[in-house]
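STRUCTURE:
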């Protein structure tokens, strides 16, 4: 709806607020009047009227009023690109090169992914107020610069796609491990939308290795969704998952994409390496059969492309399976200054300390991870592991 309103009115703020007002009106009226036969059409019509009303209120000029009335007509809008999809248009608008890369990602997560400002701030590890200001400034710049609402021409696509892939990766991650308070621990609506849009971009750029890599990564991760949360609402780690519950068709498709990229003989990018790591995981029939040496080698390759602390943390987790928890803990502790406020850092550190028998330190790290985690299933898992640690350390409490 926001994408369609943006096409009609050319203003992200108007589109977003009109959509929100339409849903608020539905909440008030539908319980009494009943749900209309076509809820989507009702919401779109109501939002369009709300947008027109806002423009009329804010404008004293007759030409602005005429623009609003003309926008309400059922016009076909601008012709699309190779694929005409409203949300794809909106992504490319938000990811315009006139905006800084981090701003493109944040704005698209808000406008296309529907994530809240706190959720986006957590994804970027920044303060909520700073993220809100960043998004507001981005919308204002799009309006002032008259950035067009369309999928770029074929010749411009390669230069625009990196920001779009970054957005889709973060949208997928929010669905894979939702951080919003009160939300379900897994949001299949977000993962499905990220996969759908990745497929569209692959159709636009079939020879782009990173597009194929991101799609493969999403498919191999999505394949495990049914096994990731227990019936009791607790996160199930990869080592403990029922591999028979994985989606075999998605795994086959993901592996095929990874093999295609390997056969291309071109140096892989970040998403292709991440997809290859997931291909190794999903190739093992049992967690004990995982080829950890290959995974560490892939992380070594990834670190050269992306020397971020989060990649280093994930590499350390893999090193623990190959060289032991003591070697891994030394690598994790070197990241403390940059990742101390990141829940996954504290969770990884807690697990390594537990494996080394350092129960008191492990308990403190679990407490910190629980405090930082926003996902209910992950919190439940961390709490159980911490409590098991307490019982093991003080067995007299079970008497």
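SEQUENCE:
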């Amino acid at each position: 709806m926001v994408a369609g309103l943006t096409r009609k009115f050319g203003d992200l703020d108007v589109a977003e607020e009109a959509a929100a007002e339409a849903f608020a009106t539905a909440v008030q009226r539908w319980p009494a009047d009943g749900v209309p036969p076509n809820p989507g059409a009702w919401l779109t019509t109501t939002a369009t009227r709300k947008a027109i009303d806002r423009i009329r209120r804010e404008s004293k000029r007759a030409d602005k009023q005429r623009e609003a009335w003309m926008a309400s007509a059922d016009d076909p809008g601008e012709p699309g690109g190779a694929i005409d999809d409203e949300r794809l248009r909106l992504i490319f608008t938000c990811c315009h090169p006139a905006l800084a890369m981090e701003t493109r990602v944040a704005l698209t997560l808000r406008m296309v992914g529907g994530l809240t400002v706190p959720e986006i701030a957590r994804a970027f590890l920044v303060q909520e107020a700073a993220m809100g200001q960043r998004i507001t400034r981005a919308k204002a710049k799009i309006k002032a610069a008259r950035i067009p609402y369309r999928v770029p021409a074929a010749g411009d696509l390669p230069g625009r796609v990196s920001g779009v892939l970054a957005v889709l990766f973060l949208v997928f991650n929010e669905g894979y491990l939702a951080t919003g308070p009160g939300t379900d621990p897994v949001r299949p609506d977000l993962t499905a939308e990220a996969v759908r849009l990745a497929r569209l971009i692959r159709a636009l750029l079939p020879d782009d290795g990173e597009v194929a890599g991101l799609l493969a990564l999403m498919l191999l991760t999505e394949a495990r969704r049914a096994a990731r949360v227990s019936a009791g609402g607790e996160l199930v780690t990869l080592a403990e998952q029922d591999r028979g519950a994985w989606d075999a068709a998605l795994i086959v498709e993901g592996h095929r994409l990874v093999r295609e990229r390997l056969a291309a003989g071109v140096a892989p990018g970040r998403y292709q390496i991440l997809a290859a790591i997931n291909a190794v995981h999903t190739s093992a029939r049992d967690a004990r059969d995982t080829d950890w040496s290959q995974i560490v080698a892939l992380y070594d390759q990834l670190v050269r492309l992306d020397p971020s602390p989060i990649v280093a943390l994930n590499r350390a987790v893999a090193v623990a399976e190959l060289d032991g928890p003591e070697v891994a803990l030394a690598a994790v502790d070197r990241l403390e200054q940059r990742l101390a406020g990141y829940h996954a850092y504290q969770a990884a550190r807690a697990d390594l300390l537990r494996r080394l028998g350092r129960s008191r330190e492990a308990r403190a790290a679990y407490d910190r991870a629980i405090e930082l985690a926003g996902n209910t299933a992950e919190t439940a898992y961390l709490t159980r592991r911490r409590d098991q640690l307490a019982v093991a350390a003080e067995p007299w409490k079970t008497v």
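REMARK: Confidence is low (pLDDT under 50) at residues 68-82.
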